[in-house]
Amino acid sequence: MTVASEYINKKGMASQRNKFVVAELFSNSDGKTSGSGFVGIMVGTLGCVAFATATVGYIFNLPNTIDVMQQSSIFIGAASALLAARKFSPSPTIIDNSQSNTIDCSQQTAIENQQAINDAAFAQSIEQKAEIDALPHVVDNTPDNTNL
Fold first, then answer.
1. Which residues pair with 33 in a beta bridge?
2. What is the pTM of this model?
3. Can you tell me the distance from the alpha carbon of 5 to that of 31, in angstroms, rounded to the nearest whole number?
């Protein structure tokens, strides 16, 4: 369910469908906030503002405005890439297991394998501790000369 449909459901009016919702700018198709979308919009806004101010500076013959225009063009290109990455990246599938408490075989096998690995590591640490405890302990009977 997208943010827009949640907004429509909360308002209870189908006429809200055509209204602009700011939250949709920053969300994926699954309604979750997209980091690349948020950063892309911020960088794009900054690039557009910088390009507009450099254009005004170019009109008034200020120095280095061409450099600012080039850098702001790079910013706008980076923002476009971030927004394209958000749009074309596959959204993760969300599995709703609230209806059933079953685990498929591959998940059960993975859980059993992890438990076996943990058990083996625990047994190995116990064996190493036993080997260390079996070593003869050396007691240093030399007098402590630090109190001189």
1. 27
2. 0.48
3. 9
Question: pLDDT for 29-53, tens place per residue?
Answer: 777 788 888 888 899 999 999 999 9
Query: Where do the domains of the chain lie?
Result: 3-88
Q: What residue spans of 12-104 are helical by DSSP H? A: 35-59, 65-88
Assign 3-state DSSP to the chain and report helix, strand, coil percentages, each to 5. 65, 0, 30
Instruction: Report the C-alpha gap between 45 and 36 in whole angstroms.
Output: 14
Contacts 24+ apart (CB under 8 A), 42-48: 43/75, 43/78, 43/79, 43/82, 44/75, 44/76, 44/79, 44/80, 44/83, 46/75, 47/72, 47/73, 47/74, 47/75, 47/76, 47/78, 47/79, 48/72, 48/76
- Report the amino acid identity of residue 3: V
